[in-house]
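User: What would this chain look like folded?
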Amino acid sequence: MSGFFTSRWVEAPEGVVQLDDALLPAGFRAGGVPCGLKGDGKTDLGIVVCDSGDVSSAILLTLNAAAAAPVRVCRDHLRQDSIRAVIVNSGNANAATGEQGMADAISMRDEAASELGLDPEQVAVAETGVIGVPMDMDAVLSGVGGLAAGVDRQGAVAFSEAIMTTDKFPKRCTLKSGGVTISAQAKGAGMIEPGFATMLCFVQTDAVVEDANGLLRKATADSFERITVDGQMSTNDTVLFQASGESGLPLPDGLLDAVLLQLALEVVRDGEGATRVGRIEVTGARDDQEADLVARRIANSPLVKTALLGRDPNWGRIAQAAGAALAGSDIGELGPDVIEAGELAGEETEAELSLRLDRGKAKSHIYFSDLTHEYIVINAEYTT
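Assistant: Here's the prediction, encoded as structure tokens.
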């Protein structure tokens, strides 16, 4: 089994092997360059391009009502089932930037399309960084030409570096299973709340895929929609899935699901100062909505999150959060007979918690990070 799957909560398909994570599947090229948005000389502009005209694709975008300009461009001006390329920058989210922000996102997309010789409506755009700051478009546009000319099949590392902001480590992989190769790059550490809470994730495969949208929605529902770091939904969340079909083979069952869950857990593990990841499972709820509500309330509770940090088996905090989620109802006394929280006190970096409500048969689970002093420092000083 590939060493990429490091979490006990990920069920890796049989026979998966890990390849050089700089390599992309057949039919894809990528790259990344510094253009000056980060101001420290770090890579901050990246492209992934699919050379196959028969590409099958799908994209999922944030539900945030204050969605950033690149999200709006992808939502309203993109052929979502045949996306040939994506251009991404870090260092500026281009969110809350008004009409100029929309014009800038379109300009960035159009320049990339021109350099790659593609239809602009087949080029996605994604951005991440500080909200409410105008884009330095001179810097972006000056970097696009050289970036587009330098993409190759070994460009996944440079691309993954181009999308990082407060991430402590890159989140990427290239795996092979059953003759099919899949690669993925993700970023995210803060502003993570279930509801396409990826921040950014890009997945490429040489498999033949008939229903890219259905596959991506299923895999995301069980991964990125099941995580939280701080209960905050990003304005820029984007998940893009592209299949070149170059292998001539179907995507192995469970491969995309496993890759996205591992990446989602890495986002939580990197949760701006996080030291541990918890999984809370709520069973016995009246319906799915109730189960999800309770699980999310527990996962986002500062009291539960600090107990996870301090390895304090204070299960009363779980009872309090569950009761607050169902305020106005009567769920009786919740005691140790229905709450399992012993792993809060364990030395493992992953802790399994559970709560049984005895109100029905529905269940839900959420993965969450602990809350540390470093999270406060990072976000108190984010723009200074």
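The chain has two domains: 17-269, 277-380. If you want, I can go into more detail on any region.
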